[in-house]
Automatic annotation (TrEMBL):
Gene3D superfamilies: alpha/beta hydrolase. Its EC number is 3.1.1.23. It catalyses: Hydrolyzes glycerol monoesters of long-chain fatty acids; 1-dodecanoylglycerol + H2O = dodecanoate + glycerol + H(+). It is a single-pass type II membrane protein. It comes from the Eukaryota. It holds the Pfam family Abhydrolase_1. One of its GO terms (biological process) is acylglycerol catabolic process. GO terms for cellular component: late endosome membrane; lysosomal membrane; mitochondrial membrane. Its main location: membrane. The lineage of its organism: Eukaryota, Metazoa, Cnidaria, Anthozoa, Octocorallia. This is acylglycerol lipase. Lipase that preferentially hydrolysis medium-chain saturated monoacylglycerols including 2-arachidonoylglycerol. Through 2-arachidonoylglycerol degradation may regulate endocannabinoid signaling pathways. Also has a lysophosphatidyl lipase activity with a preference for lysophosphatidylglycerol among other lysophospholipids. Also able to degrade bis(monoacylglycero)phosphate (BMP) and constitutes the major enzyme for BMP catabolism. It is found in: Late endosome membrane; Lysosome membrane; Mitochondrion membrane. InterPro entries: AB_hydrolase_1, AB_hydrolase_fold, AB_hydrolase_sf.
């Protein structure tokens, strides 16, 4: 039983704090929902055991990255490379399910996230982004540890080009998740409608939304599992995206230079490392038939097509993706 003199005052103190917390959260939701997104991103990073770092390579090049060190001195390194308009946090839900024996690094590509250069005047051609990643690998220094590079979408193109261009002793395997840069036998409706975005109408791309409706349309396009996002939260995501809109437009524009958007297609036969390709069966951005091209033209490729999965595999099927990646890495380890 509550003591009349001590129980009720304590109850009222707790109740008042709960009311204050509720009012604060409601106020943030309606007035500054961006703070909720930033808090959620921080929580996902913390939950995955990741810590943020910056590596200054030159005065012009600085790479921001999240890192979770492995539990062994010689842990294999998994280097994750995100796609167009994404950032390092997109892989947090994947890292959460990865065994702790892997040393995990998630980088922000220049023109994205917190890395530099990050302006609308710099060069963001895929071939240049590959060089940036190579400079990061060299500057970080992995010694004699094995390195697996895992890239999604544009990041997949970068990982594949990296494997073809830089045969570093540390690089042991590559994982391509719905990789861009391939001339597929079939083309999605998205690419048919937005082909001119690479040259004429960058502002019109659905991947560069200007309204909350366009933002939700983008989500429905990249994910198989549909999300009905409240308008306030959608507006907050849009606000964050539009902070980098000019830079992202420059990144997209640079893809058109000398056919850079098909750069991976030009070097597939040059990839000698074991390759894992994972593609969403319901990908509406890049057609799943691209996996057939990789199977036919890459010497040592393993292909997995996931059902009930769109372009954003890291959001649609993170646990399944981790299972496939870990089995692939175990297989590579036993055969090398």
């Amino acid at each position: 039983m509550l003591d009349y003199h001590t129980g009720w005052p304590f109850f009222l103190v707790v109740l008042s704090k709960l009311v204050l917390l509720t009012v604060t959260l409601v106020s943030i939701y309606f007035l500054r929902p961006v703070w909720l997104i930033l808090a959620w991103t921080w929580y996902r990073t913390w939950r995955a055991g990741l810590k943020k770092h910056h590596l200054k390579i030159t005065d012009e090049l600085q790479i921001a990255y999240l890192e979770r060190k492995g539990n062994m001195a010689n842990s294999e390194v998994l280097l994750f490379v995100h796609g167009f308009t994404g950032d390092k946090a997109i892989f947090c839900d994947v890292v959460r399910y990865l065994p702790t024996n892997y040393h995990v690094i998630l980088i922000d590509l220049p023109g994205h996230g917190e890395s530099k250069p990050n302006d609308d005047k710099s060069d963001y051609r895929p071939s240049v982004l590959v060089d940036y990643v190579h400079k990061f690998v060299k500057a970080y220094g992995f010694g004699d540890r094995k390195l697996c590079m895992i890239g999604s979408s544009m990041g997949g193109a970068i990982a594949g080009i990296y494997a073809a261009r830089y045969s570093d002793e540390s690089l042991s395997s590559v994982v391509l998740v719905c990789p861009a840069g391939i001339h597929s036998p079939e083309v999605t409706e998205f690419l048919k409608k937005s082909h001119d975005d690479l040259g004429k109408n960058v502002e019109g791309s659905v991947l560069l939304p200007n309204t909350t409706q366009e933002f939700n349309d983008m989500l429905h396009l990249v994910m198989y599992h549909k999300i009905n996002m409240p308008s306030n939260i959608a507006m907050a995501f849009l606000e964050l995206k539009q902070m980098k809109a000019d830079v992202h437009k420059k990144v997209m524009s640079d893809m058109k230079i000398d056919g850079e958007y098909l750069m991976l297609d030009k070097v597939l036969e040059e990839i000698q490392h074991p390759v894992l390709c994972v593609w969403g069966e319901n990908d509406q951005i890049l057609h799943v038939s691209g996996s057939i091209v990789i199977k036919q033209r890459v010497k040592n490729a393993e292909i997995h097509v996931l059902d009930r999965c769109g372009h954003a595999v890291t959001l649609d099927r993170p646990r399944k993706l981790v299972k496939i990646i870990t089995r692939f890495l175990e297989k590579v380890t036993t055969t090398t």
